[in-house]
Design a protein that fits this description.
about 325 residues; alpha/beta; Rossmann fold; seven-stranded mixed beta sheet; about 20% strand
């Protein structure tokens, strides 16, 4: 075991995959000589060669299209999109080609493709860099969506994504790259999809989150504990598929739930979580499910983003509402 940042854990998973399987390739903007804009691929081109870690033009549709062709031809490409907001330029490839290819080919053309993308607020990026668009992609049948919150899960879930026969969108929280650190195995391992993690045990209210919002939920749980409230924190880990049984079981234990997302309120993945709870655990609820989210506006300028993304105070206030409700 070693204490790694999330960025170091991702780099380790990529290096192990390149060493283990000659079919694995990395393509994207600046992933080679520069080592990625955040250095997630640092040192990999020097070690494995420019034919396996390939710098691509600044053209997201071309990156995804090339990765799709490589996957159909038998390779296992990992394509980096520097920021999830830029993936809009390739949405026609992701939603209409990558996600549908196995279905369209009646199983003849599996697509073992990983799309890595950084997203989320809290680091004062320019416009179009921090938007949380995960719900767009969770709504694409055939595409798996993964959103780790810890360094260990980042390594294990990325290894699982690379081994998966289907396309995976792997979302990396900007705020977690260097701020999140935990113990990570030195040897290769995987974390299965569709299995949530109980990040904190509690008995009064369940806080559900994913990606960087898990750290927010944990801080809110600390604040609630000072008020005598025991909050359980769930980390969904994967959004497509997500752990319906584990979610329902956890909510039944407390009877109250707050769902936290960085995305705008309307139409976000939190609504899917709330609807699932209503279907699976309605009669165990003591109060309506609360949602904490960004307002329904475009992501603001960096100087005021802390007024936009959810805060500890927002989560605590939502938890209080569920505790007061009957």
């Amino acid at each position: 075991m070693a204490e790694l940042s999330m960025l170091q854990a991702i780099n380790a998973a990529l290096g192990e995959a390149l060493a283990d399987d000659p079919r694995v390739m990395i393509i994207g903007e600046d992933v080679g000589r520069l080592g990625g804009v955040f250095r997630a691929t640092d040192g990999l081109q020097a070690k494995y060669g420019a034919e396996r870690v390939i710098d691509m033009p600044l053209a997201e549709a071309s990156i995804v299209g090339a990765a799709l062709g490589l996957a159909v031809a038998g390779m296992r490409p990992i394509a980096e999109i520097q920021f999830l907001g830029f993936a809009h330029q390739a949405f026609h490839q992701i939603g209409q080609q990558v996600a549908r290819m196995r279905f369209r080919s009646q199983g003849a053309c599996p697509v073992p493709l990983v799309l890595r993308a950084a997203y989320g607020g809290g680091v004062r990026t320019p416009e179009l860099h921090s938007d949380a668009f995960e719900a767009f992609y969770a709504h694409c049948p055939g595409l798996k969506v993964v959103a780790p919150a810890t360094a260990r899960d980042a390594k294990g879930l990325l290894a699982q994504a690379i081994a998966d026969p289907d396309p995976v969108l792997f979302l990396e929280p900007l705020r977690g790259y260097r701020l999140v650190r935990d113990d990570v195995e030195d040897t290769p391992f995987t974390v299965p999809f569709g299995k949530l993690r109980v990040a904190r045990i509690g008995s009064d209210v369940t806080l559900v989150a994913w990606s960087a919002a898990v750290q927010l939920a944990l801080r809110a749980a600390d604040a609630l504990l000072l008020e005598g409230v025991s909050a359980e924190v769930l980390d969904l880990r994967t959004l497509a598929p997500f752990d319906v049984d584990g979610l329902a079981e956890a909510v039944r234990r407390t009877g109250r739930c707050v769902v936290i997302q960085e995305a705008p309120y309307s139409g976000g993945f939190g609504a899917e979580v709330a609807a699932t709870i209503a279907e699976e655990a309605f009669y165990d609820l003591h109060a309506p499910v609360a949602r904490v989210a960004a307002p329904d506006t475009p992501y603001p300028l960096a100087a005021i983003e802390e007024r936009y993304i959810p805060s500890v105070a927002d989560v605590v206030a939502a938890a209080r509402r569920t505790l007061a409700g009957t």
